[in-house]
């Protein structure tokens, strides 16, 4: 128990266990001084058993929590492969949602794939553009690309940036 240093009426069975001095501290806000009064600390014999019981209960609680966590982590680790697959799937979904959201936010023309029946495998893009570059330039030139089918399976797309007009 802590009381003011000049507190009167302290019960006779309390045992003094320490004291503090008056001190001043600078508080950062508005550079004011904070005064801490002198105090006395007391041991209250009638509370000793309750304090001991409280400390023991806290220790028992900490032990129980530690054991519970150990069992929980053990059960979680038993299905580690399942959890890793779930995390991978959620990460992929997160990426796909982010791509979809950014695609909508760019405001550029977009398209969906069109699947066609046929014997040859190919992929064809009309007016393909990089969304970031086309947003930065007015004179962006889109590209048509076809891979597979009656053309090659590999293409190298190159290009130069148009010269900026100088004043």
From the alpha carbons, calculate the radius of gyration and give it in angstroms. 37 Å
How many helices in DSSP terms?
3
Segments where pLDDT lies below 50 for 5+ residues? 163-167
- Quaternary organisation: single chain
Shape: elongated
Q: What is the share of helical residues?
A: 25-40%
What's the average pLDDT? 81
Strand order of the largest sheet: 1-5-2
Distance between the termini: 81 Å
Task: Tell me the number of strands.
Answer: 7
| Residues in β-strands, percent | 15-25%
What does it look like?
With 167 residues, the protein is an alpha+beta fold. Among the domains are: 30 residues, no CATH class; 50 residues, no CATH class. 38% of the residues lie in helices and 22% in strands. It contains 3 helices and 7 strands, in the order E-E-E-E-E-H-H-E-H-E. The strands form 3 sheets. Strands 1-5-2 form a 3-stranded antiparallel beta sheet, with no helix packed on it. A two-stranded antiparallel sheet has the order 3-4. A two-stranded antiparallel sheet has the order 6-7. A hairpin with a 4-residue loop joins strand 3 and strand 4. The C terminus is likely disordered.
Keywords:
disordered C terminus; three-stranded antiparallel sheet; two-stranded antiparallel ribbon; 167 residues; alpha+beta
Summarize the structure.
This protein is of the alpha+beta class.
Layout of helices and strands, plus pairs?
Blueprint: E1 2-4, E2 15-20, E3 23-27, E4 32-36, E5 39-43, H1 48-78, H2 80-106, E6 122-128, H3 131-136, E7 143-148
């Amino acid at each position: 128990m802590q009381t003011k240093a000049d507190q009167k009426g302290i019960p006779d069975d309390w045992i003094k266990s320490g004291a503090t001095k008056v001190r001043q501290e600078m508080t950062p806000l508005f550079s004011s001084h904070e005064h801490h009064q002198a105090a006395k600390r007391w041991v209250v014999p009638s509370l000793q058993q309750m304090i001991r019981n409280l400390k023991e209960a806290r220790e028992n609680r900490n032990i129980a929590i530690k054991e519970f966590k150990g069992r929980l982590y053990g059960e979680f680790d038993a299905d580690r492969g399942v959890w890793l697959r779930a995390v991978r799937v959620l990460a992929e979904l997160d990426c796909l949602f982010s791509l979809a959201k950014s695609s909508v936010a760019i405001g550029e023309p977009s398209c969906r794939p069109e699947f066609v029946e046929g014997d040859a495998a190919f992929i064809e893009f009309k007016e393909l553009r990089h969304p970031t570059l086309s947003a930065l330039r007015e004179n962006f030139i889109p590209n048509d690309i076809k891979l597979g089918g009656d053309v090659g399976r590999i293409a190298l797309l190159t290009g130069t940036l148009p010269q900026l007009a100088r004043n």
